[in-house]
Design a protein that fits this description.
single chain, 115 residues, mainly alpha, 3 helices, 71% helix, 0% strand
Length: 115
């Protein structure tokens, strides 16, 4: 299981903690794709960072896309389960959607610079 920094209060963890885990797994997938086996033998909690700001931005865009998609799923699941998490999930969706848009903007700036 990935280490999830600042996973929020108990209600946030219960309502959408799985989405934060999926976000961190997305980063792990990126790292393993770029450097297979780099995490092998490392202690739990070791941070492996992208080499460049462009790699970081690209990884964050993918991870926040995963987060937002997961929050949509959680909202549907919550509606079927009675809706007690709706406010938490919607707040998180708005927050993470804003961050995603910021990273997408940075990503588009990076692409223009590479030309």
């Amino acid at each position: 299981m990935p280490v999830v920094p600042n996973a929020g209060d108990p209600n946030q963890r219960r309502c959408y903690g799985v989405c934060l885990e999926e976000h961190e797994r997305s980063h792990i997938d990126d790292v393993n794709r770029a450097n297979p086996g780099i995490c092998r033998g490392k202690p739990r909690g070791t941070q492996i960072m992208p080499s460049t700001s462009i790699q970081l931005t690209d990884s964050e865009v993918r991870a926040f896309e995963v987060t937002v998609q997961c929050l949509r799923r959680r909202l549907d699941e919550d509606a079927r389960d009675g809706g007690c998490c709706e406010a938490y999930i919607l707040d998180a969706w708005n927050y993470y959607q804003d961050i995603l848009e910021q990273y997408r903007f940075e990503q588009s700036r990076n692409r223009r610079r590479r030309r």
